[in-house]
Amino acid sequence: AQTVTQSQPEMSVQEAETVTLSCTYDTSENNYYLFWYKQPPSRQMILVIRQEAYKQQNATENRFSVNFQKAAKSFSLKISDSQLGDTAMYFCAFMKIMYSGGGADGLTFGKGTHLIIQP
Amino acid sequence: AAGVIQSPRHLIKEKRETATLKCYPIPRHDTVYWYQQGPGQDPQFLISFYEKMQSDKGSIPDRFSAQQFSDYHSELNMSSLELGDSALYFCASSLEGVNTEAFFGQGTRLTVV
């Protein structure tokens, strides 16, 4: 079984600042995906960014980027030029890749980091 | 673009009653996942289906069952409801083998009183 740890229950930064959310995970799998999901007050789960473990290049998506350190099992999210709309719960999630006969493994989530962007 | 549709959006049931939650995946998506998110908690994976067959099982109680139908929609049946079953239930869908991104529905908020 895998575990995902987010050590920052809450973070608060000023608008336009850069913030980094940390995530570590533990797994014996070699091939997997890592995700960051955003959950605003509406409770909708929104995919922010995805990283395939076999790719060395860190994923980026506009103002969002990750620092993926496979050996250290670390997967942090950096938000640049933070905006008020970034205020939300952020969940780090892990999914192992299933090869045989298709099929889908569920996501394992961390406990989340509540990010507050102050005006 | 069409999204994942869950119904009902809100549901209030009494203890020991039964509830059925429905999920309609994005067209052409063949995989459905169910998650339970308690108040202030992270989502917990319950069960998934791929091509109408159960694919993976998480922390789903024995009182709960689910299936995926020929049109790919899925239903989560919950019996003998307990107060602790009060939660937000998410359904997500994906297209296996093509795109691992799971798109989430807006959730069904179940309150057991």
Keyphrases for this structure?
heterodimer; A: 119 residues; mainly beta; 6-stranded mixed β-sheet; 4-stranded antiparallel β-sheet; 0% helix; globular; B: 113 residues; 7-stranded mixed β-sheet; 11 strands; 55% strand
Task: Describe the structure concisely.
Chain A has strands at 3-5, 10-14, 19-21, 24-26, 32-39, 46-52, 60-61, 64-69, 74-79, 88-96, 108-109, 113-118. Chain A has 119 residues and is mainly β. The radius of gyration of chain A is 14 Å and the shape is globular.
Write the layout of secondary structure elements.
The complex is a heterodimer of chains A (119) and B (113).
Chain A: E1 3-5, E2 10-14, E3 19-21, E4 24-26, E5 32-39, E6 46-52, E7 60-61, E8 64-69, E9 74-79, E10 88-96, E11 108-109, E12 113-118
Parallel strand pairs in A: 2-12
Antiparallel strand pairs in A: 1-4, 3-9, 5-6, 5-10, 7-8, 8-9, 10-11, 10-12
Chain B: E1 5-7, E2 10-13, E3 19-24, E4 31-37, E5 44-50, E6 53-57, E7 64-68, E8 74-78, E9 87-95, E10 99-104, E11 108-112
Parallel strand pairs in B: 2-11
Antiparallel strand pairs in B: 1-3, 3-8, 4-5, 4-9, 5-6, 7-8, 9-10, 9-11
What do you see in this structure?
The complex is a heterodimer of chains A (119) and B (113). In chain A, strand 5 (32-39) and strand 6 form a beta hairpin. Chain A has no helices and 12 strands. Chain A has 119 residues and is mostly beta strands. Chain A is globular and about 45 Å long. In chain B, 0% of the residues lie in helices and 55% in strands. In chain B, strands 2, 4, 5, 6, 9, 10 and 11 form a 7-stranded mixed beta sheet that branches. Chain B starts with a strand and ends with a strand. Chain A binds chain B through residues 33, 42-47, 50, 91, 95, 98, 102-112, and chain B through 31, 33, 35, 37, 41-51, 55-56, 58, 88, 90, 92, 94, 96-97, 100-104, 106-107.
